[in-house]
Amino acid sequence: MKKGSLSDYFRGIVFKRLSAVETTPATSNQHEFNGSASLRLLLGDEDRKNIPTRFIWLGEEQEAITVEGMVSWYDARRSHPTRTEYRLYYFGNEITGMMSAGDVFFLALCRDGSAMAIVTPSGTTIQNQLVWLFGLEDQPEFQFTFQQVEGNNDAELDFAARYILDELGLELEEPEADRLDDLIEPFGLKFPTTRDFSELARASLPDVSARDDADGALVAWMEREEQLFRRLERRIVAERISSGFQVTDGADVDGFLHFSLSVQNRRKSRAGSALENHLEAVFADHGIAFVRGAETENRNKPDFLFPGQSEYRDLAFPSERLTMLGSKSTLKDRWRQVLSEAERIPNKHLLTLEPGISENQTDEMRTKHLQLVIPRSIQTSFRPAQRDWLISVRDFLALLKARQADGL
User: Fold this and answer.
1) 126: exposed, middle or buried (C-beta count within 10 Å: 0-12, 13-18, 19+)?
2) From residue 244, how far is each of 188, 190, 199, 304, 381 by CA, in Å?
3) What is the average pLDDT across 139-165?
4) How confident is the model over 8-22, as pLDDT tens digits?
5) Catalytic one of 9, 86, 90, 312
6) Which domain of life is it from (predicted)?
7) Which of 102, 108, 175, 329 is buried most, with the most CB atoms less than 10 Å from its CB?
8) What is the three-class DSSP state of 160?
């Protein structure tokens, strides 16, 4: 599959940890960063006034907050024969008002000449993701650090990279748009069931085999289904917008808001169902006995129970041969839900496709006896200290086969 590159969207980026002075409310609405060598590498030596800039706040659990604004870069001593005094100016807004000392500030220059100013709390998953995506140093200092995107750091947009860019609100181009449009043509302007969509995604990749590479197949299937879904969604949304949101007394604001919310909710619910569909196919290809959505205690329903519900309810069946797996396309703080889903199984497993989860969260998972299962290609987005603990889909399958073989 053609994937595109990071340089299709960005020229370069700088980042730094914010100091107390930089987050102290100013007496005016105009704020500034002192110019530095790193900022000059990003923005150049010429004055650049009123650069259109999207300010984004990305916290650990909350959705992104976005504000449109501008930044200006210029030499305050441009007329001086020998001295320079560069400044990066910006006007205060909702995002800058949320900044605290220790937060991490990213300024990315986009290919179209606009910029993105991203603020994240320190030590969060999204900070780890951005540091990994742009190939930056692990720990930001209080001075700007520059990273060029073009050249050696021009990363291919794999599943993990596309996930992070989606978090930034970027609508990615599809290199295989014509091929994808041909595949969804039979659906017209209606969404098929998630199971049908998942089957189409797998069928469209005949050379991908879960028997040969379960980790690669799961990611490839999910990526293809995401591409197909977004293409069909674009068609359906465009058609709905073209028909307008009007009522007899003017604009149908409530109708528009309801439609927008339904689009977001469909994206979230479909991704989780798609992941379960493809995991089901992986387990079937490997001859694993399982039940999807079996009920345990207190009406809990773990996503997958191995080898099955009858074995789980049979108290004579050894608990060490039971396994449960939660699956969540994204985690946020929802991973704790898995902890209470099967009381007979003290050591639980959770599979996710979210890259670069923070060390604070993975450390807590370890203390709660929750083992993360991460496809191998996504494990590279985690810090080295975390990777030895992670297990892959292949590792998890080996564990299941060993436990089920014990009963033969």
Assistant:
1) buried
2) 20, 18, 33, 43, 42
3) 79
4) 899 999 999 998 888
5) 312
6) Bacteria
7) 108
8) helix
